[in-house]
Amino acid sequence: MSPIQVTFNVILVETLYSINIGSTSRAMTNMGADRLILINPQTEVDYSAQQMAATGQGPLQNRTVYSSWKDFFEKEPEGLRISFTAKDGKNRQVRLWTELLEDLKVDHLSRLAHETMAPIPIYLIFGREDWGLSNEDLELSHFNVYLPIYGGNTSLNLSQAVLTSLVLLRDRWGGIITPVEGHVPKTTVNPETTTFPEKELRDFLEEMGMVSEEGSHSAFSVMKRLLLESVPTEREFRVLVTVLKQGIRKLREYNLLRKEKGLPFIDTGKTFSKDEPQT
């Protein structure tokens, strides 16, 4: 989003259940958030938190715990504090998170960038599970926002809220997407060194008795379209050519045998011999 460096930090205030702390840790590792900060937690971080963190133990194990906001402000660098809440007060505007993300331009962060050469901390603040953030908590934030909800249930689990906020943040501000396991990146074929095996495909279909008529719905056109849509690699094209040639040879041997035995056979009009060299 900008040349200004930022870090993404999740603050949980007075969290009641350790499983939500663990789930939040996992969500943070999914979205590449940096630090987990707990302010006056109302629960111990126990084994159930570790279980819920699963493969996302990092933020949980490296968490920072403060007894109060006073302790937080004494030890944390100044940054941009954004609280997530559904409470709209008379003197407090609560904005839609996605709208705020669009409005947070470089100019807004540049004031903080002048004060330090270090990355600017972005603090995403979430309240306790039963009533959220207090009015006093909200007064400490630069912005108060709410998440977009499209269904009738407006209540989000704490870790779900954290994950949703980080997904939307990454969607607007960017980042490097981690390839999922088993995902094969798209490859391109060099047209100078690789050509589509049109002749082999036509010959194969003819030997199968599927006359290669012209048109978008012919067997040849459909097969070619399907093969090209998969974006094969050059090596895959070579394997395809080998398969087609072997198939043609086998079909020709089969048809020659049937012809010699006086059985119906597919006549492509091409001369061939049982002794034709193998590919």
Structure in a nutshell:
By secondary structure, this protein is of the alpha/beta class.
Describe it for me?
The protein has 279 residues and is of the alpha/beta class. The protein has two domains: 6-173, SPOUT methyltransferase, trefoil knot domain (Alpha/beta knot, 3-Layer(aba) Sandwich), CATH 3.40.1280; 182-279, no CATH class. It contains eleven helices and seven strands. The chain has helices spanning 18-31, 47-53, 58-61, 69-75, 97-103, 106-113, 135-139, 158-173, 198-207, 219-229, 234-260, and strands spanning 6-13, 35-39, 64-66, 80-84, 94-96, 120-126, 143-146. The chain has a seven-stranded parallel beta sheet. β1 (6-13), α1 and β2 (35-39) form a beta-alpha-beta unit. The protein starts with 5 loop residues before the first strand and ends in a 19-residue tail after the last helix.
DSSP, total strands: 7
Query: Which fold name corresponds to the CATH topology of the largest domain?
Result: Alpha/beta knot
CATH architecture of the largest domain: 3-Layer(aba) Sandwich
Kindly provide the name of the CATH class of the largest domain. Answer: Alpha Beta
Oligomer: single chain
Class by SSE composition: alpha/beta
Tell me roughly what share of residues is in helical segments: 40-55%
Largest sheet: 7 strands, parallel
- Specify the CATH homologous superfamily of the largest domain: SPOUT methyltransferase, trefoil knot domain
Distance between the termini: 55 Å
| Strand line-up in the sheet with most strands | 3-2-1-6-4-7-5
Share of β-strand residues? 5-15%
The rough form would be described as elongated
Low-pLDDT sequence parts: 274-279
Q: How many structural units, i.e. domains?
A: 2
